[in-house]
Amino acid sequence: MVKKKPKEEIEMVESKKQVFPEEYSEDIEEAFEGAEEELEAEAGVEAEPGTTAEYEAEAEEREELEDYDEVSSEEPVEVEGELEPPEYGEEGAPPVIETDLEIELVEGYDESILEMDREEAQADEARLLDAWYAEFADPATIALVQQQPGLSQTVAEVVIGRDDRVPITNTTAYPWRTICSLIITARDGSRWIGTGWLVGPRTVITAGHCVYMHRRGGWTRSIEVIPGRNGSRRPYGSCTSASFRSVKGWARKKKRSHDYGAIILPRNCAYGNRLGYFGYANLRSLLGLKVNLSGYPGDKPRGTQWWHARRIKWVTPRTIVYNIDTAGGQSGAPVWRLRRGKRHVVGIHTNGSASGNSATRITKPVFKNIKRWKKEGA
């Protein structure tokens, strides 16, 4: 009798057969290096004033989990992976709108692009670049982009073809109020911008390169978190943190496939209790899924939030790729699915190229780390 491979394992094998742009080949190769290195890379690391600690990660079991999935007579059950539910906070839940689009209903958005398959504030703050540049750009590129800001969207993250992003005008509504503008001060004193999203009362998830900058002295000195920012308006104020988390795969090895981290806010800044926060999910099937992305791009009026939605066009074991338009400043933004009124983040936006923008995929180890960090900020 031939034993069937688990569904998750089959998906990983099939994804390796896809034809990917060259820049994603490293991610695919890393994904098959072996369990021991995976454990080492996904082990968490943290930055606390005067302390350094490491998390231990458990081995990912290869079991046929489908045999243990619950079924019900009430309605068909879709076996899709691990889910952590969203919360709406004291501000309350958004109105329920019946739609099968699985994307946010934002005025001005052209729904037809979902079916397209494209191949192709303050004066000083206005000059700040995405934290991506601190990690991946050479000094000459940084100087050039500072002189010509319009170039930034072609380097860090990319507008693919026509710019279809739509501004969010009511940032006090859910989920927009849970998305945060970040002003980052690196260890060397340089300043950058990014995006994060609330996942718990005091936990903000973002890109690893927003909290740990290899070229700028390591752990970021501080990050100002501004939820629901709308230009010069800060409806919920802001809070500055110096407590961060990431994983060894990023902080020690600078693997782009492990580019994610967290900000733990001070105890007097439990934004999530009032504003709510996103759910998140480790889904087994992502290819072709409609997803949303919203953040704070540097090529738009400073501090304004912009949203876009498209289908996921490529999937690797640790990365998802899409043609959602983004620009520098959106590093760390949530990539989420909307289904039956529930919003679950499936990826953390990190970078892009002309062939597609990409996110760190929420896999089982990423899911477990986010859950741990969420508990720390409870």
From TrEMBL:
Residues 173-363 form the Peptidase S1 domain. PROSITE patterns: TRYPSIN_HIS (PS00134), V8_HIS (PS00672). GO terms for biological process: proteolysis. Residues 1-20 have a biased composition (Basic and acidic residues). Residues 23-45, 55-90 have a biased composition (Acidic residues). Residues 1-94 are annotated as: Disordered. Transmembrane segments: none annotated. InterPro entries: Glutamyl_endopeptidase, Peptidase_S1_PA, Peptidase_S1_PA_chymotrypsin, Peptidase_S1B, Trypsin_dom, TRYPSIN_HIS, V8_his_AS. Keywords: Hydrolase, Protease, Serine protease, Signal. It comes from the Archaea. GO terms for molecular function: serine-type endopeptidase activity. Belongs to the peptidase S1B family. This is Peptidase S1 domain-containing protein. It comes from Candidatus Methanophaga sp. ANME-1 ERB7.
